[in-house]
Design goal:
Blueprint: E1 2-9, H1 14-28, E2 32-38, E3 47-55, E4 68-73, E5 87-96, E6 111-115, H2 117-125, H3 131-141, H4 147-157, H5 160-176
Parallel strand pairs: 1-4, 4-5, 5-6
Antiparallel strand pairs: 1-3, 2-3
């Protein structure tokens, strides 16, 4: 089982990213997924979490994810030591940031990747919503999901120009992260 935690602010699409990832693996890779959010009564802009479990078997565990394989940070203003809580040894930390360094110490056993997905989102979407862009990074740097499945999920869940713009953003962040489009 792969467990992933998304950190963002309300309106940045942390749960939408988890849900799109779930659609990609269930509809287009014949696996099982369970995606869910965690947020309180706060308003737009407050910290939120999105979670997803992915497995080849049906998933019965519906509890909050406390130990994860991947942490995706959509907003670098949320970076503090708690972001690393529960990230497994050998885990992957993906951070959307324009900075070349993190303001916190990351253990050597964590693979850390910094990507300015917001700049690419502004270029391709015309707005600073980097959630689908970070999914492209995830596809390029892990075996969690394929780019093709994510593209199919975006086109399945979104409509019209929004779907096509997000598909381009997925491809561009995938390529920018070293992924090879076949």
């Amino acid at each position: 089982m792969v467990e992933i935690r998304f950190h963002g602010r309300g309106g940045q699409g942390a749960f939408t990213a988890a849900r799109l990832l779930g659609v990609a693996v269930t509809l287009f890779e014949n696996r099982h997924a369970l995606a869910f959010p965690s947020f309180g009564p706060e308003r737009r802009g407050s910290p939120v979490l999105g979670f997803i479990r992915i497995d080849d078997q049906k998933i019965a565990d519906r509890s909050i994810i406390t130990r994860c394989d991947v942490v995706v940070v959509l907003d670098d203003t949320l970076l503090d030591a708690s972001i690393l809580n529960g990230l497994q040894r050998g885990g992957l930390l993906l951070v959307n940031t324009a900075h070349s360094e993190l303001p916190l110490s990351v253990p050597a056993h964590v693979r850390t990747v910094l990507v300015d997905a917001t700049a690419l989102a502004l270029q391709y979407l015309g707005r600073p919503i980097a959630n689908t862009g970070m999914l492209g990074v995830l596809a390029a740097l892990s075996e969690v999901v394929t780019l093709q499945s994510l593209l199919a999920a975006v086109r399945h869940e979104m409509k019209g120009s929004s779907a096509e713009k997000n598909a381009v953003l997925l491809e561009e962040t995938f390529k920018a992260s070293g992924g090879q489009i076949t």
